[in-house]
Amino acid sequence: MKKIFQILCLIVRFISGFIILMQGYEKITGGFSLEGLTKVIAQNEDSPTWYKQFFEHIIAPYTTLWEWVIPLGEIMIGLALILGFLQYYAALFGIFIMINYILADMIFTYPMQLIGFIIIALNVERLRNVSAHAFYKMFMKKEAG
User: Transmembrane stretches, by residue range (predicted)?
Assistant: First the structure.
């Protein structure tokens, strides 16, 4: 039963990694822009006031920077999850990004992705032996002996 659960967690990790990797890739290649989003969030009635203030004062003045940071971050999270490299931290950053998308009232697939990242973060110990680090240790053990 533990193996089955581990395989399910691994599948969640791969799918979550692939989805966020593709989202980042699409943002980089598709002309991602925050200009329109800042106006939408300011007029949005569902986003909390503190989030609107955060977006207005932190994101809006530096949209050019954030238009690169967000997609590159998504790509790095996706690669980390697919490879199993720093998967706990990648899942935490994924949780952070999905919460930001939900606060911005962009409710698409993000709640499901949020659940996937939470599953990964809570089960990182089960996923350690199917990660890049585990394969590196196994390779080094074969080389040494």
Answer: 7-25, 75-103
Structure tokens at 41: 């969030």
- In which residue are the tokens 């002309």 written? 31
Please count the helices (runs of H) and the strands (runs of E) in the chain.
8, 0
CA 10, 110, 91, 17 dihedral sign is: positive
Greatest C-alpha distance within the chain: 64
Between CA 103 and CA 43 the distance in angstroms is 13
Confidence (pTM) = 0.81
Measured in whole angstroms, how far is the alpha carbon of residue 60 from the centre of its chain?
A: 22
> Structure tokens of 18?
């692939």
Looking from the CA of 19 toward its CB, the CA atoms found within 13 Å total: 17
pLDDT tens sequence across 90-130: 999 999 988 888 887 777 767 888 888 888 888 877 777 76
| Residue 39 token pair | 């106006």
Between CA 52 and CA 23 the distance in angstroms is: 23
The backbone torsions φ and ψ at residue 108, rounded to the nearest 5 degrees and listed phi first, read -120, -100
